[in-house]
Amino acid sequence: MDYTQEHVTTLHDLTDPTPDAPVGDSAVVVPIAGDTLEAVTPEHVFGPLEAVGPAEVVVPLRAPAAVAEGFREWVAGFDLSVTTVWCDAPALATLLEEHGLGGPTGKGRDVWLGLGIAADRADYVAVHDADATTYDESTVPRLLAPLSMDHEFVKGYYARVEGGQLYGRLVRLFIAPLVRALEARHAHPFVRYLAAFRYPLAGEFAFTADAARRIRSQRAWGLEVGMLGETYEKVGATKSAQVDLGVHRHDHKPVGGRGGLSSMAEQVGAALLRAVEEAGVDPDYGSLTERYLAAGERLVDQYAADAAFNGLTYDRATELEQVEAYAVGIRSPGPDTRLPAWADVALSPATVVETAREARETVDGDAN
After folding, report:
1. pLDDT tens across 164-199, in order?
2. CATH number at residue 165
3. SS3 of 39-50
4. Residue 15 lies in a domain
5. Neighbouring C-beta atoms of residue 336, cutoff 10 Å
6. Cα–Cα distance measured from residue 215 to residue 341, given in angstroms and rounded to the nearest whole number
7. Is the per-residue pLDDT at 250 higher than 70?
8. 349: CB partners within 8 A, 6+ apart
9. In the predicted model, is pLDDT for residue 360 greater than 80?
């Protein structure tokens, strides 16, 4: 049984806990995207959320207009206070442009919108994805509980084991060896902070409302790991925690192709390495790829041993191929397109909600 503490407070699943947590003073942000009603109506998430009973649920929704309206009708069947923000609303894009916040869209921008609204309405904010089939009523209380224990930021972590094999490939085969390569060269507090998080790409995290308002956000992929650079600067290691969420299962992406893990690695790597540079660490790009590949090969050997120990299937050659494919993400980051902290913008979260609502009514009216 694991009791190990890291550089950040690490809360373990020792007794299958559903701890006391400030649920009634919290808003939960659930980003959802999909092209069909079936893709955006996760009963397995909203049923448990209804039982947990947060003060507010904010859903940044990326979907066609008709699907967004179908979602609103569907979610009204739950005993929850839900604010749906239609992220594809043209009027919302115009509003953001008017405030100097236009630019690329994606999951990061959607979560940023949700964070601002949630932090405006509750003392605590939890964020989680909607695709985990292992989601249950303990997820939100586990994320929120450390916030009542004098922490300001909480990150979830979990095991990714499904179908008799290891998943979590982008964490295991890209982030982990990249951080190891940095750690071997730099005894820097931020690199130590990064290395402490057991699942840096987890989409499950929580903040005090004050901390949420002080965090800049990536616009697309890279949101989760880029956020660690922000939390190190704004919150610090002693106010950060991570919590065990058990075993996590959800849909798996291919390695190649548009939207695959290799293309994600480019954005994730840029976010991580920008955070490293901003912390004052020189990644030494001339040798970083070579150091990453060596660390990746060593980790593949370790994963192979762990898989064999647990009777899991493991394809060492395929894993090494993925390490090499993800190396495309190791390069100096390009232009900084992050969204600023809500504390630094002149835009009101209430205006975002109202603009999205009016856009929905306009679309509905045109349809009629």
Report:
1. 999 899 999 999 999 999 999 988 999 999 999 999
2. 3.90.550.10
3. HHCCHHHHHHHH
4. yes
5. 10
6. 5
7. no
8. 116, 117, 119, 120, 342
9. no
Q: Phi/psi at 71 (nearest 5 deg)?
A: -60, -45
- Written as six digits, the tokens of 113 are 């919108």
Can you say how many angstroms the Cα of residue 74 is from the centroid of all Cα atoms in its chain?
A: 25
Provide the 10 A C-beta neighbour count for residue 290.
Answer: 12
For residue 97, the tally of other CB atoms under 10 A from its CB is 11
Tokens (6 digits) for 179: 């951080």
Residue 1 domain-assigned (yes or no): no
Task: Report the amino acid identity of residue 233.
Answer: E
Taking the alpha carbons at both ends of the chain, their separation in whole angstroms is 60
Query: CA 124, CA 141: separation in Å to the nearest integer?
Result: 11
* Cβ proximity of 236 and 151 under 8 Å: no
Domain annotation covers residue 261: yes
Split into its structural domains, the chain has a count of 1
Check residue 368 and give its pLDDT: 45
Q: How confident is the model at residue 131 (pLDDT cuts 50, 70, 90)?
A: confident
What SS3 state is found at 226? helix
Range of the domain at 351: 9-335+347-356
Cα gap 142→225, rounded to integer Å: 20
Quick one: how far is CA 183 from the chain centroid?
A: 23
Q: Are strands 124-127 and 26-29 parallel, antiparallel or unpaired?
A: parallel
Residue 363, domain member (yes or no)? no
Q: d(Cα 201, Cα 63) in Å, to the nearest integer? A: 24
pTM comes to 0.93
As a whole number of angstroms, the distance between CA 56 and CA 86 comes to: 17
Helix (H, G, I), strand (E, B) or coil at 339: strand
Q: Is the dihedral of CA 68, 73, 74, 75 positive or negative?
A: positive
Residue 148 Rama label (left phi>0; alpha psi -120 to 50; beta): alpha
Contact status, residue 304 vs residue 273, Cβ threshold 8 Å: no
- What proportion of the chain, given as a percentage, has pLDDT over 70? 94
Query: Mean pLDDT lowest for which of 3-7, 48-52, 287-291, 304-308?
Result: 3-7
Assign 261 to helix, strand or coil: helix
The tokens for 153 are 């930021």
Residue 172 CA to residue 187 CA, distance in Å, equals: 22
Q: What are 164's two structure tokens?
A: 């008799």
